[in-house]
Amino acid sequence: MKIRVETEHLSLGVIRLTGISLPEEYTPPEPPADPDDDVAVARAMYRAIGQDPTRNRPSSEALLRRLKKGLGLPRVNALVDELNVCSVTLLLPFGCYDTDKIAGDVVCRLGEEGEGFEGVGNRHVNVGGRYTIADDHGPFGNPSMDSRRTCITPGCRNALVTIFAPPDYAHDRLEWIAGKLINAVGGEYETQILRA
Fold this sequence. Notes:
Layout: E1 3-5, E2 11-18, H1 40-48, H2 59-68, H3 78-90, E3 94-98, E4 106-110, E5 116-118, E6 124-126, E7 131-135, E8 138-141, E9 159-165, H4 174-185, E10 188-195
Helix pairs in contact: 2-3, 3-4
C-alpha cells in the first residue's frame, strides 16, 4: 500500500504496524498529569484551509477538553488508548486504521463536496473542503474523527497510524510514539514522514 499527501497545508507522520496483537486485558496508559493546553499548532492546519477549528475540533483538542473537564480519556483498546495519550501529550490529531480494511493506496487530500464517512461515533462526517484520508472506496478518516469502516477492533493485526501536523513540523517524536505502541501491542513498525 502506497501513501501520498496531496495538500501542501500539512505533513503526515506515518507509522505502519504489522503483526500486532491487542491484549484483552491491559492497564490503560496514564494521560499527562498536567497537559499543555497550547492548541495553536493543530488549529493552524485547519485555518490554513479556511476551516474553523472550534466548529470541528482536532481530535487532540477534543481529548484535551475531556481531560480538563475531569472526564478522563475514553477506553477503547490498548492501541487506541495508547494513541490517545500520545495525541494529548503532543497536542496533534492522530488517526488509527486497520490496514486490512483499507482498499488500495491511501491519499491524504482535501475532501470533495458531498464526500463523507460514517464516524466511529455513529454520525456522518462531512469532509467536503476538509482534510481527509481516503482509499479506493473513499474517505475513511480525518484529523477530527476516524471511520467505522476501518476502525481498530480486537482482531486487528496490522494498523496504519497517521499524525496530522503543519507542513514544517519536525515529527521528531515519531520513533517515541512507535516505541510506545509496540510496547502496548507487540509486532514491528516502520515510520516515515510525508509531505506534498
